[in-house]
Amino acid sequence: MKHRAAVLGSPIDHSLSPAIHAAAYAYLGLDWEYGRAELQPAQFAGFVDGLDGSWRGLSVTMPLKEAAAASGIPDDDVVLTGVANTVVFGKHRRVYNTDIAGLRDALADAGLPPVRVATLIGNGATARSALVALVRSGVRLVEVQGRDPRRLAVFRDWAEQLKVEVQPRTLGAPLDPASELLVSTVPSAGLTGRLEALEVEYCPALRGVLDVIYHPWPTPLAERAEAAGRVVLSGLDLLVHQARHQVRLMTGRDVPVEVLMSAVRAASDARVRS
């Protein structure tokens, strides 16, 4: 019986996860299939419960990460963040959050020096994972920008368990001059009319910018950061590194990140040309 896996979310047509996982299976010599399915949260449980024994795992993207967290036995990071991006089938159905390790690996791979002060844009599911990753990377103070003061307050209260100082600020406020890293977890449209106010070009301590978006690319934020000479990471960096952890969880085997990065960049370039 051929093993199967897929990525679930909405929208999902743009996802490059199939290219990454297909490259992993080819490298490992596995005759596995990896597809995609467009789902809304209300459809998630029914879809997963209806899968047969050929299924080995699922990659989960927005807006399904909260639903995924409740769909199996959670690992510690799922319990901590309340979100999951990976479902693994076996004797028991288990759910994981590989975004945290993926973001840490992406930052380490970029060669950025240790960061103690960072700015995080957004306060949703991805932002929770990003904050945990930042704390585990050594960050001790995080300026969190968002549009809704109430959601910012909820995020700050949740973050208390991480033993990190969180400073809530209105989205589009100038960066803390001490901020060494900027991580944006919001769609590009969420920063429309606010990029100038961030003053990415003038933040003296800023070394790097990670925008979790990868399509379309470059984002306006990435363009400004690159023009200012900052190290810029895209959502592809996060996608590849978290997918490497997913492959390990689903297959029990490891794949060099270079294999996955080469595949995803080829797929991304082909999309641009088409």
Secondary structure layout plus pairing:
Elements (H helix, E strand, L loop, with lengths): L3 E6 L7 H12 L4 E6 L2 H9 L5 E6 L4 H5 L3 E2 L1 H6 L4 E3 L5 E3 L2 H11 L7 E5 L3 H12 L4 E6 L2 H11 L5 E6 L10 E4 L10 H4 L9 E4 L8 H8 L3 E3 L1 H17 L5 H17 L1
Parallel strand pairs: 1-2, 1-3, 4-6, 7-8, 7-10, 8-9, 10-11, 11-12
Antiparallel strand pairs: 3-5, 5-6
Helix pairs in contact: 1-10, 1-11, 5-6, 5-10, 10-11
Kindly list the characteristics that best describe this protein:
single chain; 274 residues; alpha/beta; Rossmann fold; 2 domains; six-stranded mixed beta sheet
Mean pLDDT: 96
Number of helices: 11
Count of extended strands: 12
Helix fraction bin: 40-55%
What's the helix-strand series? EHEHEHEHEEHEHEHEEHEHEHH
Number of domains: 2
CATH topology of the largest domain: Rossmann fold
- Tell me, what is the CATH class of the largest domain? Alpha Beta
- Report low-confidence residues grouped into runs of 5 or more: none
Global shape: globular
Q: What separation lies between the terminal Cα atoms? A: 35 Å
CATH architecture of the largest domain: 3-Layer(aba) Sandwich
Note the beta-strand portion. 15-25%
What is the SS-derived class? Answer: alpha/beta
Largest sheet: 6 strands, mixed
* CATH homology superfamily name of the largest domain: NAD(P)-binding Rossmann-like Domain
Rg, Cα atoms, Å: 18 Å
Written overview of the protein:
With 274 residues, the protein is α/β, with parallel strands linked by helices. It folds into two domains: 3-97 and 237-273, Leucine Dehydrogenase, chain A, domain 1 (Rossmann fold); 101-234, 3-Layer(aba) Sandwich (Rossmann fold), CATH 3.40.50.720. The protein has helices at 17-28, 41-49, 65-69, 76-81, 99-109, 125-136, 149-159, 195-198, 220-227, 235-251, 257-273; strands at residues 4-9, 33-38, 55-60, 73-74, 86-88, 94-96, 117-121, 141-146, 165-170, 181-184, 208-211, 231-233. Strands 2-1-3-5-6-4 form a six-stranded mixed beta sheet. A hairpin with a 5-residue loop joins strand 5 (86-88) and strand 6. The model has no long low-confidence stretch (mean pLDDT 96).
